[in-house]
Amino acid sequence: MKRIDAARLRSALLRPVGPYAAIDVVASTGSTNADLRDAVVEGADDRTVLIAEEQTAGAGRRGRTWVSPPGAGVYLSVLLRPGEVPLPALGSLAAVAGLALVDTARELGVDAVLKWPNDMLAGAEPAKCAGVLAEAVACDEQAVVLGIGVNVSPMREPVRPGPGALRATSLAEEGASTSDRTEVARLLLGHLHEREQRWRAACGDLRAAGLLEEYRSRCATLGMQVKVLVAGGSAKIGEALDVDSDAALIVRTADGQRHTIFAGDVVHLRPSHA
Counting Cβ atoms within 10 Å, is residue 136 exposed (0-12), middle (13-18) or buried (19+)? Predict the structure, then answer.
């Protein structure tokens, strides 16, 4: 197993050559997001990156685990301190990361789309290849930890399907031009910076950043009949109509009502015209 080359990443992406303040690679940790949440309190700089060869307690949405075996993927978190972005707009950061993931996949020759709110799907029969988890951190200076997990090589053990029986896949299985995890990390961090810089300059507004139409065009959820599972509420079933500038999903239910959903799990049922 070829390890991720921290020195190579630093030479390409660390200040003053690149945008990042620190890039570290560790052999194993519970969760890179948890580690950087602690680093926020300790005063770590804006755009600090932590990558793990393995996570033993990788976190997904709603308390789920993200399977992170050694050598199979790129598991990274980025600490951001976007002081100019209002707190309610931080939720759109997952959409920014999603676009960076699609940029990376397509550069590697993999057909990829986004599933609202935080998954990248790949392949002719779309399967989950990557996920995003953004967590705001309470501290004196506004901070958010953005976690991204990408399956680069096939999993050695079967992975339990996600909501809607969505199976897992990897970049390699979908024909990526390389399975060099250092190169995948380099591309992802480069694309993330390009997208996040525009998002930050627009104070978190996807439309003002010129990212909203791109997200809509790459979001496979739009135009689908969906079931949206919302924490503490009943499921919404209807047509996914749109995504707004805060990255909220607009769903029209059978009674004609429109619902704005900021967070939830989406199951794709069928195309809305079917």
Answer: middle
- How far apart are the C-alpha atoms of 209 and 207, rounded to whole Å? 5
Q: What are the residue boundaries of the structural domains of the chain, listed by start?
A: 6-215, 222-271
Assigned CATH class of 222-271: mainly beta
* Mean predicted confidence (pLDDT) in 226-245: 90
d(CA 267, CA 251): 13
With a cut of 50, say whether residue 112 has pLDDT above it: yes
Global pTM exceeds 0.90: yes
Q: Which of 187, 190, 171, 189 is nearest to 179 (CA)?
A: 171
pLDDT over 90 for what percent of the chain? 78
* 6-215 under CATH 3.90.1720.10, yes or no: no
Kindly tell me if the per-residue pLDDT of 221 is higher than 60: yes
Cα atoms found within 13 Å of the Cα of residue 246, Cβ hemisphere only? 14
CA distance 255 to 251: 11
